[in-house]
């Protein structure tokens, strides 16, 4: 796309394009900006420009809510350029704050033409900006500075930059919805209040994707100082269809080619074909692991599709962005980072693989498509199992109807208060506590912060030697540790270690795991999904920060204990899925054919009859009371107990913790728990029954739920980990390294030391905010106890209750997964090097890769076949054999060498292969060799079993 073409899409419409407005909005701009617009050939503003430019020119605070690609950036910046053009000033006239560094690069590229044309200096500043460039900006400030929330924090403390910031008249916050739901955003709002202490006042402009409560996001942006909201209706311009591909002729062959199952092969084929129908397609997935797994399948098919996600190197991301923008790629497979306004040129279609989980996610993602001619955003949600399909149908309907989730603002985060108290001390040198409190509480997320809470944070910081508190004068002062603390905590994103994951079968790196996962979940024997495959943890080395894993042999028979960070499904979406089950269930159980019911659903939902019939598959097979939005079904068999509850992730997590804690307390045994938006799965002692669950739901006082949940959290590793993270932000720990530095004992001591402090209070608050919904769960208990929600008990498992077990496993095929694992083991062993040592002459010794060893090894010096095959680190065994006098240890080594040689003499290279395996000594090698089997794969399968056994027990032998 040419520069002019790119600008046409971003700025407005040329005279030949669709006209959804008039040039009146552009007429409100000054002559120089209008002349620049004319040079570009743009006469008609886009809808957001038409509605927002007039109040922006008048100096109002404005929040613009519109999809990506509708010219939001220029909506904000044309009036800002107009105000700055021709002014004589020393300092920075406007700040443009974005949540991503990649957006900084885009903004500079998009705004430079306007800066050059209007003689305005536009520059970027973030963590990677060179010292030379920083100094230059301090001495000669640009007119417009594009930056991040964290860099704003650093700028506010620099003496020269504070002078430059005093001239700021405009602050634009891009993707403000993204910041509103994070501590980064809460920190930024206080930063803007600190900026207000320098500047006389400034206009605040927010740019946002669709949110359910734009008025509150406007309050977040402005500190509740008044904000005009310009909102573009997205739902009416949304064309989204939900499709669940069916296996077709040829998909069986494709499955073999891709080493996957036919169902997943059909998804890959369908997405590939869909990409070929359009010029430029974004394909969104919910996790990086799935992006890699799907990307590898497209690569096998030579599909012209790139991969983009946050774990890739910056250079790799920029390369695929540029390739897609230039039209060199037909599709770009991406994760949530591409929801934001990174400029990748025109997009005419968006594919979402699997449910987007939330209405806002769907609108942000599909909203990236279209806008050039008919202003319609087109997208397809490709689903993979019944829950996924019903959920996607509900979300697509809600998106069209404008039923969008509210922004979940981080109100009153105390570690952010601690961070910004240090920032204020850095700004002023010393400041009265009540003055700092007044500045802090001007920021919207801290409007309800009490003086008591504020003072407790100040005292905690003083006790941690971050600041000095002069009690008599109520003054907070800078001390030697303030500077170091502040600059080590510029970001509110927690500092976490990363553990490398190593496959015991191949010795290769699988990927990485976040410290949070390792601390909260990882123990030997647990199963998780990474890179589209299932792995069982065999060992955790906390010092080396390494997790050793082995591939799961039969993925179809396993339930992954952890599948990565899931986007939580909201209550309203889960409830609609429950309602759909109820409506369909009543018809199906009265004898209506599933195809007929599915056709009726097409009148309300954006799916074809076949897709909807697939979504109703569990309901059609379910011959018991149907769990709905108003009916709970508790089913149990043996130690498995499932509460079918359509309340979404957070409420189910809260109820699950309650049930797990109280049932465990009753029996004196631990109760394992897994949840999804529609089920709470418990593994209970045999003396627990469904009636015990019913008693908890009927007898627990909803008013006591907050205390019960907090008690249930006290022994949770997740809270201990959170306390440690928050303690770092308070300066109580210099740097938190979850397990490797302190271990479980250290975390327990830390919890005991900090209970009753603002550190502990903030850790609990954050967990309640991010993972749980206590109020929602209390409302469920009230409804159960009033009879508004019915609860049925069933002494067997049902299709719906079992339905959650297949979620997330659609990439895996037991046969193919096993075959690929065995091939990996074979390749690794064939490339391993072994020491061959002649026990007859004891003169010949060679180190060779297994693949280069003869079927019947013999000594080239003496011709003997008495050859020991030893691991490459076994030099001491050779020395022991040669020793004239041997101690007990050397005798054992010698015996091992002769046993090895006996195996090689009898079984040849097969013995060498078995002896090359990790932790497989001569005795186990003999067992492996002597076992009767049908094929070579079984031989390697037995080797792998022995290696896994060794990996599990290695710490014992060591």
From TrEMBL:
Gene3D superfamilies: P-loop containing nucleotide triphosphate hydrolases (3.40.50.300)
GO molecular function, one term: ATP binding
Residues annotated as domain Helicase ATP-binding: 53-229
Source organism, top-level taxon: Archaea
Keywords: ATP-binding, DNA damage, DNA repair, DNA-binding, Helicase, Hydrolase, Isomerase, Nucleotide-binding
Pfam families for this protein: DEAD (PF00270), DEAD_assoc (PF08494), Helicase_C (PF00271), WHD_Lhr (PF19306)
Matches recorded under PROSITE patterns: HELICASE_ATP_BIND_1 (PS51192), HELICASE_CTER (PS51194)
A GO biological process held by the record: DNA repair
InterPro entries: ATP-dep_Helicase, DEAD/DEAH_box_helicase_dom, Helicase_ATP-bd, Helicase_C-like, Lhr-like, Lhr-like_DEAD/DEAH_assoc, Lhr_WH_dom, P-loop_NTPase
Region described as Disordered: 1-25
Helicase C-terminal domain residues: 270-425
Repeat recorded as keyword: no
PANTHER family according to UniProt: ATP-DEPENDENT HELICASE LHR-RELATED, ATP-DEPENDENT HELICASE LHR-RELATED-RELATED
Family (UniProt): Belongs to the Lhr helicase family. Lhr-Core subfamily.
Protein name listed in UniProt: DEAD/DEAH box helicase
Gene source species: Halosimplex aquaticum
